[in-house]
């Protein structure tokens, strides 16, 4: 870690530069796009079995219905590359073929696509389709098919499904204090405000897709691979995305259906998935069983750790999350045994969702650690501090920075933990039992390749272009600040353009790597312009020789530094150009391979539990977080607060329930899929350490988007224990569990 550089714009709580466009409705989300030609509207007809074949499908009545232009089924869908083809392109870029044959892979998979003049017509016609199925034997419940479990090839958050360090069984057997707890965590859906939506438009053999995605370059690959066309003929456009949470990392059936139908009809096709569709034609996080065994010495030194997880993988869709990833990085232990196992199931796609791995891993591990601390008779804060590792526990790698203990201490101060834990039931206000708990937050810090282009005109107006997305996180704003900082330019003179594959390629938004990766590319592009200006100015005026590039400002069309000023136009005239151009590129370096890099937090919760009704209310949440250098005090705080609210939801509310007879999710809307709403959210206190990690990237920032989730859920569960003496073994905690 090193000292923070002094800055003018980076770190400032600048209001969102896209805020006015969003609140006035001027911001166009994917389904808002209107081209020259009026789009026809699509509607998905979903399979009503979990696995099997379509034996008959009657479409005549639907085809004859008012306004209907197309009824596409497997019988007339254009040929595509088989689903999963081009696996090298990864799960987001491989073929996402739809309606390719009579097979049904999961409940809710499209069996027909209706395109009509209006949504009402399409929806009405959907009701006229009659499908007869032949159902197969299916696997819906992973836990019932444990014997078929295997180690996943594609695991998000850990390099290996298995880790063995020392002899767990032997050390565990000799540990003075032990815990053996099996937890269940719920299936969840991203439930983003904006549903998955697409407008597809063809011009000859060129396809333009306005689609709600987080990563444009992989969406382009997915369309090219599915439709077997040249990626150069695919343009993806998405200037605004209304929340992703992982569910928009890849493309989904609605996008491919729209592209196929638009080509058939020679007309743009628009489809916004209904909320109900999103729960089957969008991805979800699967439920997990997690067994955790911990052993400690009598004085609370953690010795042995085993974390074994089992979840479902959607058949043919290679993804599993590493729920034990925080376990591998949090506390020192001489023996460690990690197992990740999955069962292939006939269920909708399982994919990354909000802190894949860590969200559900800290939920269980931080609950178990807390329980063991209490068993050892040690303040759970002290227990965590005394088990701080020197190196990453599972790998032995050095940490880039390690501030978990500092986050816990500062969180404790913010919250007022100094008195330590109290016995369950000891704090009471009338019928309310009061409890306080804490947990650590930890989340890997990643970096991904990104390119950016910048152009400064003679009037001193800067345009920055890259195919990055702003999924509500504040990308437009932080990239504006980074450009302003690098060129000493007022943010009002800067236009950041995102969300178009015509711009330089980036990693997009995901894994909390977007800001650091694309921010570095933008700063490099702008630095190139800055250095060009200084170098050229020095050729015109020797006073400019050797000036410090960090002192340059662009003001009123002039390059200005310490008493010297030159018109940008004069410099450009001497070069013979109209503008200064810079390109920036970044790749993850050796520091990301060699060092264990994480963001950290310490989260504290106070809850009340009604002793008569079991109603749990979160009263207070305080978190101290270290995500390296903070790029915008306001948007960063919002990211952490949003994350904490998701953590609250994971502890107490969010749960997708599958009907195991059919493999169908039952609560497919926001009335039945509960997310935390304003009334559920207490005062949130966020402290940001605002450090600087040069190993992360030149900006010194680290991933922040998913950090707040990790730690908040278990802090609440631990507070519920402190209130009631009840240790949960499943999430979310229901009030009836407490009665
Ligand atoms: Mo995140 S779940 O990688 O969008």
Automatic annotation (TrEMBL):
It holds the Pfam family Ald_Xan_dh_C. Residues 24-137 form the Aldehyde oxidase/xanthine dehydrogenase a/b hammerhead domain. SMART domains: Ald_Xan_dh_C (SM01008). One of its GO terms (molecular function) is oxidoreductase activity. It comes from the Bacteria. It comes from Georhizobium profundi. InterPro entries: Ald_Oxase/Xan_DH_a/b (IPR000674), Ald_Oxase/Xan_DH_a/b_sf (IPR036856), Ald_Oxase/xanthine_DH-like (IPR016208), AldOxase/xan_DH_MoCoBD1 (IPR008274), AldOxase/xan_DH_MoCoBD2 (IPR046867), AldOxase/xan_DH_Mopterin-bd_sf (IPR037165). This is Xanthine dehydrogenase family protein molybdopterin-binding subunit.
